[in-house]
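Methods — Computational structure assignment.
A single polypeptide chain was analysed. Its primary sequence is given first, followed by the predicted tertiary structure written as structure tokens.
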Amino acid sequence: MMSEFCGTCEEALSAQGAMDYATCSACKNGYHFDCTSVGESSWRTMGDSRRTAWKCPTCRDAANARNTKVVITTPDPKEQNTRSASSEQLTKQKELTKQKERAGQSSKLSDLEAESPIVTLLVARMAELEKRLTEKIDQGFSKSQNDIKEVKDKIKEFETALNFYGDSVDQAVKTVKVFEQNMVLMEKRLEKSETENKEMKTKLRNMEIQVNGLSQKDFNNKIEISGIKDNTVDKDEVTKKMLNKLENRAGEILFKTEKMTREGDTAKTTIVVEFKTQEVRNMVLTKIKEKRLYSQLEDVFPNNGSNVYINEALCPYYKKLLYQASKIKKDKKYAFLWVKDGKILLKKAENGKTMRLDCLDDLGKI
């Protein structure tokens, strides 16, 4: 089961998704990008196969140690019992020979033992040769000169192989370093592109807000009367009667009207009333709310008890934004969503912070 905490700093991992932290394919632990050897840009640009095969430094080192483990052989105890205990000279010769062999090869073995599985195989062969030499010395010095020459030839062959594989390893290391340098350059270019994209998105958002704001200015002196069931109503007559209910003589307020009717079984009529200025529009709206006029229009046009809505008029883009915001308000249980002077405002609770919605991208912040 994957841990919810970083395998290095033990802090909580992001809950947004698996791309926000690195996951080890061996131990299944997650790691912050600052806590491990892979950067965020590298992780996001990896293919699925590389991400699923990635290992943390601890698991990678453990795997390398297993792959390079040397098999050590020991002499057979029965064969040791057959040695001549009385031959002190043979024992000294054996120790001297071992010391020479170990002194000549130990430094090279320790340096190259962890470089390649092939080197590990060669080390095992060397151990076998050492065992054979020990057996020959224990049995006596007959034919020892030929045996020693054979061992020396094998050692020389072994050294040649070590030099060859050492050169190959050096070349591989250089290739890896060049690859790593190229990866660093690619990461820097990617980071630069991401920064430029963010700046471009910010500029586009600001331009979109400015354009929509200019479009809304044409609607800031208008109101909408919506929810009218009768599509035959006289728009001018309805407006005059409504203004008279506000204790204002209709002739004193200049206006012009536009009627829009939706088609279909649920067709309803909307009347858009345009006033001379935004101040006049705001004064009319204030009195409508004070007198709760939207519930007193049955004598103006019968509506069979259906609700009538009187609100600020919005441009098409802001209408879409308000509609999307109303769905999110319902889903996330926000307390207030309203329009004031062409601005769409949202509040979580009565004493909460007011949020202004300027464009559709702002819905992602809710």
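Note: Residues 144-217 form the longest helix (74 residues).
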